[in-house]
Amino acid sequence: MRTPNFRAGLPLLGVLAFGVxxxxxxxxxxxxxxxxxxxxxxxxxxxxxxxxxxxxxxLQRAKDHLDQAKAALKKDNSRQAxxxxxxxxxxxxxxxxxxxxxxxxxxxxxLMASIQTLRQEAARGVVASDE
Length: 131
Fold this sequence. Notes:
This protein is an all-alpha fold. It is 89% helix and 0% strand. It contains four helices and no strands. It has helices at 2-24, 29-49, 56-74, 78-130. Helix 2 (29-49) packs antiparallel against helix 3 (56-74). The protein is rod-shaped, with a radius of gyration of 29 Å. The protein starts with a helix and ends with a helix.
């Protein structure tokens, strides 16, 4: 009679053991995934920013936060890993936005310069034809 009761308790023991083992690892898969995503975002930002000055400071901050997130993962500090991964992601996005904004501003300035040149040439053409 004792054997059925013992076997009946095995699934419960398995569930408890799984819970204890899962509790030992304080870093969840979601946290690891967020750190990996922030690493991808930082790499993409690095490609977008390139050697441009616009966004370079934010890109460096993203890299620093990414390094801190990875270090927190190694120490099983989920809260710090999450925080730094999120900050890395935000800084990477800001670096990309600043770089793209600077590129758009440069293109707009070049377009305005071209328009100004065309206006000057048109004005000379009108003055020359009046003479």
